[in-house]
Amino acid sequence: MTSLTTTVSNTEIAPRSSLWRHLRHVVSENPVTGVAFLLFAMFVVLAVFGPYLVPFDPLQTDTGPALQSPSAAHWFGTDHLGRDVFSRVVVATRLDLLISVSAVAISFVLGSVMGCFAGYFGGWTDRITGRLVDTIMAFPLFVLAMGIVAAAGNTVENIVYATAIINLPFYARMARAEVSIRRNAGYVQAARLAGNSELRVLFGHIFPNTLPPMMVQISLNMGWAILNAAGLSFIGLGVQPPAPEWGIMVAEGANFIISGEWWLVIFPGLALMLAVFTFNLIGDGLRDLVDPQRRT
Amino acid sequence: MNRRNFLKGATSLTVGASLLPLFKSLPAAAANNETAVVVIGGTINSLDIHRSGTNRDSYQVAINCYDRLVSFGTKQMPDGSLSYDYDNVQPELAESWEISEDGTEMLFTIKEGATFWDGKPVTAHDVKWSLDRAVSLGGFPTVQMKAGRLVSPDQFQVVDDRTFRITLPFASKLALPDLATPIPIVINSEVAKAHATPDDPWATEYLHRNPAGSGAYKVARWDAGQQLVYERNDNWSGGRVPGFQRVILREVPAQSTRRALIERGSVHASVNIPNKDAKELASKPGVKVVSTPIENCIYSLCTNVDFEPFKDKRVRQAIAWAIPYQKIFEQAAYEQGIPMWGGTSTVDNIQWPQKSPYNQNIEKARALMAEAGYADGFEVPLSFNLSHADWAEPAALQIQQGLAEIGIRTTIEKIPGANWRTIALVEKKLPLHLENFGGWLNTPDYYFFWAYIKGNLFNSYNYDNPEMAKLVEDTLDMAVDHPDYAPNVTRMIELAFDEIPRIPLWQPTLNVAFNDKVEGYEYWFHRQMDIRALKPV
Amino acid sequence: MTAALEKLRKVALRLLQAVPTVFGILVVCFLLTRALPGDPAAYFAGDMADAESIEEVRRTMGLDQSLPMQFVSYLKDLAQGNLGMAISTGQPVTAELANRLPASLELTLGALVLSFLIAVPLGVLAATRPNTWIDHLCRFLVTAGVSLPTFFTGLALMYVFYYLLDWAPAPMGRLDLMFLPPEPITGFLTIDAIIAGDWEVLRAALAQLALPTITLALFTLAPIARMTRAAMLQAIASEFVRTARAAGLSGRRVLVTYAFRNALLPVVTTLGMVFSFVLGANVLVEKVFAWPGIGSFAVEALVVSDYAAVQGFVLSMALLFVALNLLIDVIYTLIDPRVGEEA
Q1: Does residue B498 lie within any of the structural domains?
Q2: CB–CB contact A242 B412 (8 Å)
Q3: Of B43, B419, B425, the CB nearest to C37
Q4: Hey, which of A173, B194, B523, C95 would disulfide with B292, CB 3.0 to 4.6 Å?
Q5: How far is the C-alpha of A238 from the C-alpha of A118, rounded, in Å?
Q6: At the top level of CATH, which class does the domain A29-51+74-294 belong to?
């Protein structure tokens, strides 16, 4: 029974070896994607080992004179409390990735479950999900995030939830669309005839095929989640001090641009930009990877 | 430049603006020295200080557009800048006044020829209506009037058109100064009454948008959330004719933008700039910074005695010995202000604020902690108001590190402005927090009344001491030359420093930056820009 | 005739579909504002207020009633077009919105137009030369734009072009102090200035618009450029373009008439999403440039729990969105002849 479904779905999911070949093809044709994957690996390393690599405790004040421009001792200079900006930028990687990964994970799981049900069962499930998603989408997303964090209090968890909620509609819509076009595909009907339960058909056979386009969305949203947290910090609804986080460092540093202490904003800003940039490029790369038109 | 259809344009554009026909040529004036541009970070949300919901920035309309019976004189500060003088009450609408022997009756004579903007003479009836309004509307105006022992319309009496009597239940040194605060303004009661309705007998809806006063400036235009344009009243009788024909008050929310504007010389003044900017701008060419210590105000760390470990005086003292004061002063205050630590161990004068006897001494702090049975420390959240982040955040981070040395582990909590008042001041449930109370009326006992009496608003730490309560009650209305006054105040300060529920950090400054085209700025206790004193160089 | 009727029916259906959404928005927004921490009555009564005056403020704000009652009275007021009083600015919410919405829209639309003008040619350029260095460069540039927080870009632009170079005017709102606004007809300063024939004011308004618009446009280049590129690639690979080429039409003509026209469809649909994006970003940019729009108004209101203001803001946003999506649907119908015929 399973062999039947496997052969059918082979038309959708390419065998591992060909996928790998395709990946190599995409990377060789588009070196930028290769660079993006390297950068991503670097961010992961920093997130895991960052705190052990840095020269100073990121929370320690007075590691040197306050507001000192970059020097050999402090590569990225020091902030208004004499904290080492380099250490803070590196250690912040973990919290930022944590926020974006968990936010995106929540919205991916919830959104795709909602979307799958809506697309598969249609009817009232679809209508209610649809209206719910429309309602969320009718808010300017940043404003909604702002409202949620303001109402629930600005903790890391609430920032994660707010970011997850505003991203939810994208996954729900995408999952719904992907599922509804496959609902009556040959391999699905075959799986159904083989006696699989509806849920099993939905999550065992249809859902995996929606994953490639979802991956693109995930990597784009990761970058967006970081930006979102940064924006919240700028209006005072972000992570609580003294936790190092790029968004709040840029937001605080922004006040120092006019007075000439550029290093406070440039370095976390660059880190933030690089991270968002990496996720965006990976998203683009993945799109090339899963785009059937590019596979021929 | 000919801006032909200004009036037409302005009338239809400004929603809710009061427009006076005098105001004809905004653009031409902006270029010459008849007009000053002032930027603020806040917003004006009402032109009526008595209305509930009127925010702090709006108080300046009451100051610049209305007159009170009396005002304060001017004194020169040690650094050469100018300040109002609390000890010198001057006439504004009243030309003279007499206070009865027992101090319970004040008789004011209103200036001959004082008129409202519409030409109507100012009479005792207007004064009566206005003061009645302030004690009747409730909210902030009523509370502030009460501070001067003015609580009921029965206390206000019209003797004749130019004579007005105030009766006090008992003599109080706070009564006359309280009449010089922004609250007891005199409103044109005929205009106001014409717009009053049965639902709104005090014309709050009308006066909210349309000031009706006798003050030095009229409001030519108000675009809520953007700007307020003041136009000089050339018939003002309250004092010296102001220097600028027109003052444009622009609201610019981003602090960096305000700094760029003043530094580039695009505006004449930027009010209430952060300490860091004050320090740095002072050395820039073309910019003048005036930093005046705010009277009767101390930035403090408060320890809530409802929180178990803080019930023990020794723990509070230990905290006071553990704070890195100097670093806070450098990194949070940028050395703008007056240190409030490292004073003598005995109180030998009644100057307020004055230095506490504490300094950073970790050994002493540890010993006190051990004595109190907290050698291993404890955990406590350290909170501050998000709107005060510019000084409170660096201060909190330094305090966090200082307390860590004696085993007290703190987590920092920023609390948004809207919640601050409820959580910190009304419910009084923040264990450890930064606070910035300052009293308008400049006597130490007034400060102690608000900050050290159980239940009062700025006693956010539930401090309760019968001796302190008795001292404040006895002293609050007492004249400062009374023989008991100095000993009482000394004892209050001793108690405050020994029991130390409120740990003084430093006395802050009000910083205002100017370009080189304007002079004459005067500091006022209400911390708003009194544009009447400004003049072109 | 029937086709037109059919289209009309569809439009009506779309409008009907929006009704539950709008209601949902009302509910969400109402609950969200009530969930805001803090006590607005205490806040607005002022620092020195006593318990009695706080109660008084609570009564005037209608906050002493139960939540369902508050919701009902909110709906009643709404039906009469009364959005309540924004306490943080002391003005009726409707007046605030009427005053500020044009400012935000002018900025947003300006940014969208600018972004469209840059991103679409970039996308087409990239699509016609896929996987060359031009393609990579385009991708690199637009991605860099979307990777920066807007408040950072805004401040950086201000620092360079106002503070250092003095090319841009002082960032103090929509019009320099030297000028008087033209008679408001549309509320858009630029358009009003053109109507009034006041070129000086037009120039001044454009000068004020420049930096915030560029800030926002940088942020929106990426989605538009990406979508254009993808849509163009698809269109170029499609059969009708191949057929047109085979028929011997010139490359340029094929590109413009056939490929580009078809590629525009998905681009127009993305605009709705981008619009939401920009309005969110607006909040931050308005703060940096002291722009008197609804975004900055909403942030201030949110921070002080000004219920009426937040509700009014969100409601107007939502209606704007419904209208915009409708508009996009209509445009879609207009440029795609197939839409009307499908069931």
Answers
A1: yes
A2: yes
A3: B419
A4: B523
A5: 34
A6: mainly alpha
